[in-house]
């Protein structure tokens, strides 16, 4: 059976190698801008997930109140 790439995890040497390649490709000045963009994207994703959860819980509460008022 053929082993897939990266089975067994990614160790410190692999992480350092990837960081070196990114540094060479983008340069030192561009990396902070990239990280800032990634951070904003992650934050937006989390805010979206929290908004969905809040919306669902509000809908559930409204349904429970409606059922309680009907009794």
TrEMBL record:
Compartments where found: Cell membrane
Superkingdom of this protein's organism: Bacteria
Topology of the protein relative to the lipid bilayer: Single-pass membrane protein
Pfam families: TatA_B_E (PF02416)
UniProt keyword terms in alphabetical order: Cell membrane, Membrane, Protein transport, Translocation, Transmembrane, Transmembrane helix, Transport
Biological process annotations from GO: protein transport by the Tat complex
An example Gene Ontology CC term for this record: TAT protein transport complex
GO MF term (any one): protein transmembrane transporter activity
Chief localisation class: membrane
Spans traversing the lipid bilayer: 6-26
Family under the similarity heading: Belongs to the TatA/E family.
Subunit structure: Forms a complex with TatC.
PANTHER family on file: SEC-INDEPENDENT PROTEIN TRANSLOCASE PROTEIN TATA (PTHR42982)
Function per UniProt: Part of the twin-arginine translocation (Tat) system that transports large folded proteins containing a characteristic twin-arginine motif in their signal peptide across membranes. TatA could form the protein-conducting channel of the Tat system.
Name of the protein described by the UniProt record: Sec-independent protein translocase protein TatA
Biological source species: Dysgonomonas alginatilytica
């Amino acid at each position: 059976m053929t082993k897939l790439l990266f089975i067994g995890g990614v160790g410190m040497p692999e992480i350092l190698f990837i960081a070196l390649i990114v540094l060479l490709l983008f340069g030192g000045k561009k990396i902070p801008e990239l990280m800032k963009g990634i951070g904003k994207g992650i934050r937006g994703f989390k805010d979206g997930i929290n908004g969905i959860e809040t919306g669902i819980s509000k809908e559930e509460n409204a349904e429970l109140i409606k059922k309680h008022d009907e009794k």
